[in-house]
Amino acid sequence: MTKMSHGSRAGSRMKLTKKLKEKGMPNVNRMLNKFEIGDLAAVKIEPSIHKGMPYHGFHGLTGRIVGKQGECYLLSLKIGGVEKKALSSPVHLKKIEG
After folding, report:
1. Does residue 98 register a pLDDT over 80?
2. What is the CA angle 8-69-90, rounded to 5?
3. 67: which strand partners?
4. Which GO terms fall under biological process for this protein (predicted)?
5. Which domain holds residue 62?
6. Tens digits of per-residue pLDDT, 1-52?
């Protein structure tokens, strides 16, 4: 018997799989998204781009942009009563108006 993998993408088969019509690379506009500090953003992981991918446990959560590191954004997320920070490339984020 083999041991279970404990890599960064372990246990994310359904979360990081695209539908048949969505397969392939995203639009360039999605990679060039700009966010301001204080904006609301949802984590929507793009599985075809591995660079700057946040941990898959944050997929589907909404947080506030609190900073920038290089070309990635620092996102503050509230999980339960605990505030966590996630570093993500703009291709994995979706702007929330509000």
Report:
1. no
2. 65
3. 74
4. translation
5. 26-96
6. 888 888 888 989 999 999 999 999 999 999 999 999 999 999 999 999 999 9
- Cα distances from 8 to residues 24, 35, 55, 67, 97, in angstroms, run 22, 26, 7, 24, 30
| DSSP character at residue 7 | S
pTM of the model: 0.90
Tokens of 76: 């503050």
Q: CATH number, domain at 53? A: 2.30.30.70
Residue owning tokens 């942009």: 65
Asked if residue 3 belongs to a domain, the reply is no
Do residues 16 and 47 lie in contact, with contact meaning Cβ atoms separated by under 8 Å?
A: yes
| CB-count burial class (<10 Å; 0-12, 13-18, 19+) for 51 | exposed
